[in-house]
Design goal:
mainly beta, OB fold (Dihydrolipoamide Acetyltransferase, E2P), six-stranded antiparallel beta sheet, single chain, SH3 type barrels
Amino acid sequence: MTLLNYNEIKTGKVVIYEGQPCVVLDYHIARTQQRKPQNQVKLRNLITGNGTNATFRTSDTLEEADVSKQDITFLYTNKGEYWFCEGADRSKRFMLDEESVGDSKKFLKENMSLQAIVFDNGEEAKIIGVKLPIKVDFQVKDAPPSIKGDTATGGTKQVTLENGTTINAPLFIEIGEKIVVNTETGEYVERAK
């Protein structure tokens, strides 16, 4: 168990706040003339996904959460259940609910390698979420037809990916093409090579 001082609570750190593991999204140490410095922090709960703001003063400390990552493979989804296996060993299967998978579900595809975020509270280790690769290749399943001369404005159109997710892509993207998607922003990056 590591205790962090108020000025060590920085972006990317995972801390225990109100008994729950939270990741620090943003922080700002404010120093005013008459008062002692304070750290204004934006947190996201790793279990519920809710965001919150907190302020820590010079006398405050927070416990750093014991979070690790484990390589897993996504197998399939069925009626709101998301099935994974440990590494490439398909005999060690486990299920996560929709809440644990969160927004990552939009960019999951069968046999995809990703990481599980494991929180250990001292009594048991529990998977609290998944972390996708930042860029993933998808095949375009459906796209409206392109009209000649329509690309001069640099516009976009909605295309459907192989897993059913819709994103905005440039007008020149056609059905059957492979494209790269940023899983953090949900945006088209480029054509896959």
